[in-house]
Amino acid sequence: MMKAILAAAAFALSGACAAAGQPPIRFVLTFDDGPAPTTATVLDTLARNPVQPGAKAIFFVQTRAGGSADLMRRTYAEGHLLAVHTGTAQGHVSHMALSTEELEQSLAFAKADIASLADGAAPHFVRPPFWFYDRDTLACYERAGLAMLLTDITARDGTVLGINLVPGKELMIRAQLERIKQEVAEGELPVLDGAVPVVATFHDVNSSTARNLSDYLEFLVDAARGAGLSLAPRPFYDRREDLERAAALRARRL
Predict the structure, then answer these.
(1) Residues 35, 61: contact at Cβ < 8 Å?
(2) 97 DSSP 8-state letter
């Protein structure tokens, strides 16, 4: 029994020492499919939460699908970043289902809409609905001056309603963090200002996610530590400029 205890302690110590030699991570929070009435709750929680008040996020918005221009304007005014999801009245339609002309128009509309709400600042990032893309859509993004940002961690709250912090969800997110730990250890992820930007994705249109976002933030931090990852002193980005630089580092281009 004592040998087993000592072996377990030695293993844990060796893991801690290995992690100590790795750069910390910092979460790039992102939200899809808004704006929606629940977006206001998300903004309130990001501003005031027990984990890190004033955390900033990237919101991939549907600018012409019935969303509130006032909410998008508020999102930008509070220091967050607006990015492209869709720019057509059809809303959440796969970019791969659109012709080249339709997609280029959708991207142009979204860019113009966002710029009009963000003091003229044009968006630099896009995330395709359903995350479906191919070489043709990537080429359209490049012509539009947009870089595609996907994710490292997903709560899958866009398709499964509820906070979902049940054992299955916890195991899924923990597994993603374990993979990230391996990638950090092998130097596969870039470093910015001494930390590795790790993209985490939620859906601000999910009412349960919006209500329980503080729990999600706390769970991300606790699960990262539980996976043996070290965290930056402020684990979430809290300046729009730094958030944009981190997204640019992680975005995919042709």
Answers:
(1) yes
(2) G
Of 185, 175, 186, which is closest to residue 152 (Cα–Cα)? Answer: 175
pLDDT at residue 45, as a whole number: 98
* Helix or strand run (H / E) with residue 2: helix 2-20
Alpha-carbon Rg for the chain in angstroms: 19
For the chain, what are the domain ranges? 24-250
Residues forming beta bridges with residue 57, ordered by sequence position: 29
This prediction has a pTM of: 0.89
CB 126 within 8 A of CB 148: yes
Is-contact 221 25, C-beta < 8 A?
A: no
Indicate the fold that domain 24-250 takes in CATH.
TIM Barrel (3.20.20)
Distance CA 221, CA 217 (A): 6
Euclidean distance between CA atoms 236 and 79, whole angstroms = 13
